[in-house]
Structures are given as C-alpha cells and as structure tokens.
Amino acid sequence: MENLMDRFLRYVAVDTQSSEESDSQPSTAKQLNLLNMLCAELKELGIEASVDEYGYVMARIPSNIDKEIPAVGFIAHVDTSPDASGADIKPQVIENYDGGAIELKGVPGLKLDPEEFPEILAHKGETIITTDGTTLLGADDKAGVAEIMNAAQYIVEHPEFKHGEVRIGFTPDEEIGRGVAKFDVAKFGADYAYTMDGGEVGELEFENFNAAAATVHIQGRNVHPGYAKGKMKNAIRIGMELNSLLPSDQKPELTEGYEGFFHIIGFNGTVEEATFSYIIRDHSMEKYEEKKAVMQQCVDEINRRYGNGTASVEIKHQYYNMRKQVEPHYHIVEKAVKAMEMEGITAHIQPIRGGTDGANLSFMGLPCPNIFAGGLNFHGKMEWVPVESMQKASAVILNILKLFAA
Asked: Which member of 8, 100, 151, 325 has the lowest number of beta carbons within 10 Å of its beta carbon?
C-alpha cells in the first residue's frame, strides 16, 4: 500500500495551476496531466473510473452490503491557485517537528515562524510538509485528493470493510470558481457528498460566502505630461480613486467570521486605460447584494466626476451560500461530526471564509458539506500540511462510510 505522504508528494509535483484568463474547460490543459493520472490509478486499483471531456474524473465502488443505503461521494479539486506559482514545487519534509521556526530554504531568510503562525505549535512532534518558499505547496487541494485515493485503496485492499455505494470525484478549476460548472450530478450518482477541502483538523463547514468577481475598466486620456493640464485623465490614478471609495473597513485583512469584504486581487494598466479586478464576498445574501450595489455606485461616482464612459464594471456571480441547501439534510453533518469523534477529533463547525465545489453542487441537488484536509496558509509560499492531519482526514472518510452502512 502506497504511503499517504509519498502519494501526496507525487501529486504536488504535477503543475495544475488554473487560469482566470482562460475560457476553456478545464482552464489549463496541464490539469489533465493529474486528472488522467488519477483516473488511471483508480483503474489500476480495479475501480470503475472515467474522465470526461471537461476533465471531471468520476469513479464508483459498488456496495458490498445487502441493504439499500444512500450512495456517498467524496470530492476534491486538483487545481492550484493562480495567486502563486504551482510549477517546480520543492517540498520540505520536517520529521518530528520541534516547535521552532522552519527555514524555507529556497528563499534566504524566509521562515515559517511560530511567532507569526502560532497554530503550527499544535503539531509539535509531527511530520510537517512545507514549501521551499518559491512556490505554493498545493495541499489545497492535493491533500484532499491524496486522502480520498488513500481511502479508496484501503477499501479495495480490505474487502471485509463494509460500505455502501461509494462515488469519487476529482475536479478542475475550483480555485477560479468554475470547478463544477459542467459537472454532471446525475452521472455522478451520489445521494450525498463531502468535499475534502478544508483546513485544520476538525474543520467542518456547511455554509460559505456568496461570491462574485468584479472587473472595473477605467478609460483614461493620455496627453504629453508637459502639456497635460486640464486635458489628461490618468486611468491608473482614477482607478486608485475608485478603490478609495470602497468601504475602508471591509477588506480581508480587517474581517473575520461572518464579515464580508471587497478584495482587490489584480491591476493592469497605463495612463490611457486600466483594469482593476476584485472579488466580493459575504455570507448574508442581503449584504452580498448591497456590496454589489456599492461597487456600481463607486463606478457611477467616478463617471460623475470624470464624465460618462470613464468607468465601467462587469460583475459575475460565482457561487451562493450552501447552508439553505444542506441544512434540510443535517444528518450528513451529524455523521461527519461522529466520524471525527471516532478518531478522537472534536468537530469545529464554522462558516467557510471562501467557497468549495460543494457550494455549487449543493445548489445542483447534491448536498455537500466540507471536511478538513489538513493544510494551512493556502495560496502562498507559507503553505504547509502535517502528514498526521492527512491521515486523520482519510480515516474520517472511512468512518463516514461505516456510519452510513451501520
């Protein structure tokens, strides 16, 4: 049986970064390298599996009990965030972590320091996998992928393990909000599912942000700076002015819990024209709609100041809060809580300050809470994951199947 850590390290070696700039599905062809690999590995285990034209891997393990119970799915995404490079990842494996600062040796002086990230101290004595400081790690969500594959291999190699119908899904493009845009829920065939895409051990989530992406375009007017008085409209400065109109206290670094935000994630431009990219988030539907309206009001104000046509905005919905779709099936949350307790884990139910494929799947008729995968500091060079956390997550998968089969 392949070691879970070795499996994870093998998966993170494959560059699967998704791209918001692409309209294809998947958004980057390189994601198919891992998706095809996973499909082949499932088949090698004797599991029925396929990968479709959109990159979705779907697999089925038949029930081995003689009573009808719900089919349960487990889902993870293969893509890594566009926020940081996912190419040529060089993981560092720190065995028996001693509680000190961990040097990220690819960047001199860069450290994963408990003074800045005290949560790492809860994992003293464990095996920690970090980046080398030059890329992200990819635990989001290749930890989830490895955990599901590890559980699948256990099921195959232990026929005495009793379970109902098991469905497995691997998706592309979750990080850009299109992870299940073309996912065939009926073909997948699960009654309920869980995404293995959370963070610290014990995390369990069935509510998330309502989410939109906003792209603001500023049309300026370039004139030679020596003769620009009364004529030039600097698109960069005007965009900065628009940004200053947004609520100053509603930024990611100033919010927590159920508080939403506006987050500027990109800028590209010149004096002549510029584009500012934002994401808009809130758990409350009412406040979510208010935030979209505020963005439009800021654009209108810029046009009032500088003339119609100076600013425009395109707001695209990404996903909704899944709570109202999952709560009527709360027993699936309760089973996840019990499955954690069976491993000595206290479940920590909290709202996701983000989203998962499960949000859209829940609105597509597949109730789908989110379970911890074990990684922390996603989307950047400070990302890390304890091997023991991945082992616990894989055990929780098996425990959920036991509880459904009981």
From this structure: 100
